[in-house]
Write a structure and sequence with these properties.
By secondary structure, the chain is of the alpha/beta class. It folds into 2 domains: 195 residues, 2-enoyl-CoA Hydratase, Chain A, domain 1 (Alpha-Beta Complex), CATH 3.90.226; 48 residues, Lyase 2-enoyl-coa Hydratase, Chain  A, domain 2 (Orthogonal Bundle). Strands 1-2-3-5-7-10 form a 6-stranded mixed beta sheet, with helices on both faces. Strands 4-6-8-9 form a 4-stranded mixed beta sheet. Helix 5 packs across helix 6 and helix 9 packs antiparallel against helix 10. The chain is built from 11 helices and 10 strands. Strand 1 and strand 2 form a beta hairpin. It is globular, with a radius of gyration of 19 Å.
């Protein structure tokens, strides 16, 4: 990590990662991309970490996308490297074996919206503003936006937003299914933590397999998706957690899951 450009706070099975470049609206330069990549990869095999929350420092921005000041200094080859790096990172986040919650605390444009799209759940503050604005710079979304947005909000709405480069506020984002919930700015991290706490009550293996089944099954036809679901279910059957869940239900107590 470089000069605390990515802050990390760990509590109750949840890690809060804060993009910490508020002076440039938490824009993504190479250093921040690499720091976020290293943190995410480092958490992959941490069995004691159940949920990751990603947010931005300050009150104005979640993430304004690429650092355009840095971008102006890059050669065409370096721009390609940047696009590969950010696209690969967001795919890693999407396919991580743990749920990722995006706490969208303000402006989220371009790569900022794409980071939120790669997350599993999005909760926005009332002052949030989201959009894939790349076409206004004569480019297109390059970190998954053209693929993830239509899968989330539908082809027609996605084309409208990408073709116009229009921003949407929190209420519209909620109405089109771009975010899961909206709250006041001062409540955002608490709401994210409440969601994380609910997830932490569930079985770790079950969550990992459910995410796998959803992510991969939705890309196929129904029959193939059902087969993926069945195979994911089979993984949960021999686990100690499944037996613990049944025992806790029978004994009318909270289960204690160990991810085994």
């Amino acid at each position: 990590m470089t000069d605390d450009i990515l802050l990390r706070e760990e509590k109750d099975g949840t890690v809060l990662l804060t993009l910490n470049r508020p002076g440039v609206m938490n824009s993504l330069d190479f250093a921040l991309l690499h720091a976020l990549r290293d943190e995410v990869e480092g958490l992959r095999f941490r069995r004691d970490v159940r949920v990751i929350i990603v947010t931005g420092a300050g009150e104005k921005a979640f993430c304004s996308g690429a650092d355009l000041k840095e971008r102006r200094t890059l050669t065409p080859g370096q721009v390609k490297e940047y696009i590969f790096t950010i696209r690969d990172l967001f795919s890693t986040i999407e396919n991580l074996n743990k749920p990722v919650i995006a706490g969208v605390n303000g402006v989220a444009l371009g790569g900022g919206t794409e980071l939120a799209l790669a997350s599993d759940i999005r909760i926005a503050s009332t002052n949030a503003s989201m959009g894939l604005t790349e076409t206004r710079l004569a480019i297109i979304p390059g970190a998954g936006g053209t693929q993830r947005l239509p899968r989330l909000v539908g082809r027609g709405k996605a084309k409208e937003l990408i073709f116009t480069g229009r921003r949407v506020g929190a209420d519209e984002a909620l109405s089109i299914g771009l975010v899961n919930g909206v709250c006041e700015p001062g409540e955002l991290i608490d709401k994210c933590r409440e969601m994380a706490a609910m997830i932490c009550e569930t079985g770790p293996v079950a969550i990992e397999q459910a995410k796998y089944a959803i992510n991969h099954g939705i890309e196929t036809d129904l029959n193939t998706g059902l087969a993926i679901e069945s195979n994911a279910y089979w993984v949960t059957i021999p686990t100690e957690d499944r037996l613990e869940g049944l025992a806790a239900f029978r004994e009318k107590r909270k289960p204690v899951y160990k991810g085994k």
